[in-house]
Amino acid sequence: YPIVVLISGSGSNLQALIDQSLQGQLDINICAVISNKAEAYGLERAKLAGIPTHTLDHKSFASRDEFDAELQTMIDQYQPKLVVLAGFMRILTETFAKHYEGRMLNIHPSLLPKYKGLNTHQRAIDAGEKEHGVSVHFVSPELDGGAVILQASTAIAEEDTAASLANKVHSLEHIIYPLAVKWFSEKRLTFHDGKAFLNGSVL
Ligand code: GRF
């Protein structure tokens, strides 16, 4: 099952997909990993796993439209059935998001619709939240706004910092993201009219 993964950083979610696929729990073929940052450690993880990598530096493009158009061409040469955003820290143009509508997933470290955008862990702590978590969703043109597929939550302890909370959330991410990818590859997870369905029931 051909997928392309986009990253900007450490790539621990990419690693979870690689590991589950090597262990035979996930029947996917990661055709390529693309990063907008040359120094992203996830590129090393991909190389170690023998996966082709590309860097497409957004700073060498005059506009977001031009960057996204080139990114789309790069992705589409692999003809993936699914595009997986795994810590890809770029806002997407509407054209790009529409092109992959219903076949592009993102993972966002909050219990959406709460805390879209950045610094989610600190914002949840500052707001005095008792729980926090992570969401996998279909990507829509609205930032962190597409149909939610799956969430996992954790309690916020008195002594939690943004860093300790990020660690807790990361371990949840590595469980739920491969699961959502698995469902999609098995055609159990589908998308119609802006909504996510699992086994034919709306989520
Ligand atoms: C994760 O926290 C994810 O939720 C967010 O970016 C981070 C990526 O982490 N979208 P990693 O690069 O997969 O380790």
UniProtKB/TrEMBL annotation:
Residue ranges occupied by any Formyl transferase N-terminal domain in the UniProt entry: 3-181
InterPro entries xrefs: Formyl_transf_N, Formyl_transf_N_sf, GART
Gene: purN
Binding-site list for N(1)-(5-phospho-beta-D-ribosyl)glycinamide: G11, S12, N13
Site (Raises pKa of active site His): D144
GO BP terms, alphabetized: 'de novo' IMP biosynthetic process
Catalyzed reactions per annotation: N(1)-(5-phospho-beta-D-ribosyl)glycinamide + (6R)-10-formyltetrahydrofolate = N(2)-formyl-N(1)-(5-phospho-beta-D-ribosyl)glycinamide + (6S)-5,6,7,8-tetrahydrofolate + H(+)
Pfam families, per database record: Formyl_trans_N (PF00551)
Name of protein: Phosphoribosylglycinamide formyltransferase
Recorded superkingdom: Bacteria
Source organism of this protein record: Marinomonas hwangdonensis
